[in-house]
Design goal:
By secondary structure, the protein is α+β, with helices and mostly antiparallel strands. The chain has a domain of about 190 residues: Galactose-binding domain-like (Jelly Rolls, Sandwich), CATH 2.60.120.260. It contains 15 helices and 23 strands. A 10-stranded mixed β-sheet has the order 1-2-4-3-5-6-9-10-11-12, with helices on both faces. Strand 5, helix 5 and strand 6 form a beta-alpha-beta unit. The longest helix has 19 residues. The protein is globular. The two termini are about 35 Å apart.
Length: about 575
């Protein structure tokens, strides 16, 4: 059960009657017990709420918002939240509780539905119209009597995109952002090193293709993903979804994605940005790129990476870890905005980088990313499935067959939906088309914190194919859990050994004493990624497949290895 579902179950009975009676003080109290901060600056204002405030865009669409204001203050900073959610009692409850929390402390909070969502008019199409609508919303705020010249924005995922797409705006513009699990580069979240993020795209399509968001039926998702061609996955699952088609057919450098992502938005803003990422979130890799760019432009930007999948907390094996994503996305906000807008004299007290270290399961502050004290260490794939720092000797290779009609099934990882996160890998490793390389048990704990990359020497008899890499933590009793993974799709000269590099995003983990480090190599991770048909045709439109014979070389002249960011302890 997800964080959101757990909270919903706990709150539903208690809050339904409160919502129906409009008892804000009680709903706020109960909400604070579950996902609002329990300390920090106290409330000092009563709050008034206006429903259905808004305006009509230049192309005739009415955008409506809830506006929560502190009574007794004529002008305040504004916090803008542009949400692509349905108008349900649960979404209103969460929105009202968070907004009233901030409004009671001196902010005007504007919660606006994007086109076709919440109470706004127009047809819903994720992310496509957010730049112009966002710009016009900033202009509308600037005309309001309570506007004091300062605007902050908050939100994650699709309503993180509503922030990034207007991050270059000035006069009026946004003065501070708090962006969670979203990057400036949705294109490369859906198209990862040549492969299409099928499960994430299809999950979103099934959830949001209608007038209201619905719960995804995984049986439908799997039915859609199973067939060929990929472009018809939405039709097989439920119906034709135009935005799924556009996501699948448009390459990352196309005009379509430029409209969604803008043009290098992280490099076009100089205002402070607080980023919240997750180790198992599909946006992690591109968010780290954004942070690197921001630190050259906006030195007072910050990065937090927690034990999260996409808007969900992960559960580390054998632990009592209780990190709530919802709380993590709200808790730093007041301190962040107070510091930016001068509503409190308290210091920000926020390190440039804050990380949750898996395995140890604790938060740690750092000054940079990657960490300056990193020892980049090659762990080589050796004979008989070994993994060591020593170079292999002799001519060594391992082979397997990749059949697109019998792909390696996904088990966890960084994707949208409830099948993401950390999962057991033992059944996956037992397949003949998965090569495993494992270290000896560690004498002492080893920490790996930072970006991950694998360098492999491979050959294939296919004109185009995929190679996948997964980093795994093997517990002393043999249980194996995924930490990070990557994929690379490209063309090859059949039979010719080729050096490739595969990006596995990043992690922060302590492999405990007695644990083993494992690397898995294969050619599919499905349906997280679509299957390469091995024919040289586009995977999106192909209807036929062929088997590929894959070889992994790991010898003195072709030392296949993974580079781990080892942190001295």
């Amino acid at each position: 059960m997800s964080d959101q579902q757990k909270i919903a179950v706990r709150l539903a009975v208690a809050l339904t009657c409160l919502v129906l009676t409009g008892c804000h003080s009680l709903t706020d109290t109960v909400a604070q017990a579950f996902f609002l901060p329990k300390d920090g600056r106290p409330a000092n204002h009563a709050v008034e709420t206006r429903r259905d405030a808004g305006f009509t865009t230049t192309d005739g669409v009415t955008l409506l918002a809830d506006v929560h204001r502190p009574k007794g203050i004529k002008k305040t900073p504004t916090l803008l939240i542009r949400i692509p959610f349905s108008n349900t009692w649960w979404n209103v409850l969460r929105s009202d509780s968070i907004s009233r929390y901030w409004a009671a402390r001196g902010y005007t909070v504007v919660v606006q539905g994007t086109r076709g969502r919440y109470r706004s008019g127009g047809d819903f199409y994720p992310m496509k119209f957010e730049r112009q609508d966002g710009i016009e919303t900033l202009q509308w705020i600037a005309r309001q009597s309570w506007y004091d010249g300062h605007i902050g924005m908050w939100g994650g995922s699709a309503f993180g995109q509503t922030q990034w797409i207007i991050a270059d705006q000035t006069n009026p513009g946004v003065d501070a952002f708090f962006i969670q699990i979203a990057s400036t580069d949705f294109a490369h979240v859906f198209h990862v090193d040549g492969a299409f993020a099928l499960e994430s795209a299809l999950y979103w399509a099934l959830q949001s293709h209608g007038e209201k968001d619905i719960k995804v039926d995984y049986a439908q998702l799997d039915q859609g993903a199973r067939g060929l061609p990929v472009i018809d996955a939405d039709n097989r699952a439920c119906c034709d979804v135009p935005f799924f088609n556009d996501w699948a057919l448009n390459a990352p450098d196309s005009a379509y994605w430029k409209e969604v992502d803008g043009e290098n938005q992280a490099a076009r803003t100089s205002v402070p940005v607080l980023l919240l990422a997750g180790w198992y979130d599909p946006f992690l890799r591109t968010m780290l790129q954004d942070f690197a760019t921001l630190r050259t432009r906006a030195q007072n930007s910050h990065l937090v990476i927690g034990p999260y999948a996409h808007a969900e907390a992960i559960k580390w094996p054998d632990s009592n870890m209780a990190e709530n994503y919802r709380f993590g996305s709200v808790d730093p906000a007041l301190r962040w905005y107070d510091h930016q807008f001068g509503l409190s004299d308290a210091p920000l007290d926020m390190a440039p980088v804050r990380l949750f270290v898996l395995g140890e399961n604790r938060w740690r502050d750092e000054q940079e990313w990657p960490l300056a004290r990193t020892r980049w260490t090659n762990f080589h794939l050796t004979e008989k499935g070994g993994l060591t720092e020593a170079l292999p000797a002799g001519v060594i290779s391992d082979s397997f067959i990749y059949d697109p009609l019998d792909p390696v099934p996904t088990a966890g990882g960084a994707m949208l939906g409830y099948r993401s996160g950390i999962k057991r890998q033992n059944d996956i490793e037992a397949r003949p088309d998965v090569l495993s390389y494992t270290s000896t048990p560690l004498d002492t704990a080893l920490e790996a914190t930072g970006p991950l990359k694998a360098s492999l020497w491979v050959s294939t008899d296919a004109p185009s194919t995929d190679f996948t890499v997964k980093l795994v933590d093997v517990f002393p009793d043999g249980r194996a859990y995924n930490l990070a993974d990557g994929i690379l799709r490209r063309t090859y000269n059949p039979g010719e050994p080729t050096l490739i590099e595969i990006d596995l995003a990043a992690t922060s983990v302590v492999f405990g004493q007695g644990h083993r480090i494992r690397v898995e190599i294969s050619s599919s991770n499905y349906p997280r990624f679509d299957r390469n048909p091995n024919t040289g045709e586009s995977s999106i439109t192909a209807t036929r497949t062929q088997i590929a014979h894959q070889t992994l070389w790991h010898d003195t002249e072709r030392p296949s290895h993974i580079v781990l960011p080892v942190i001295p302890r």
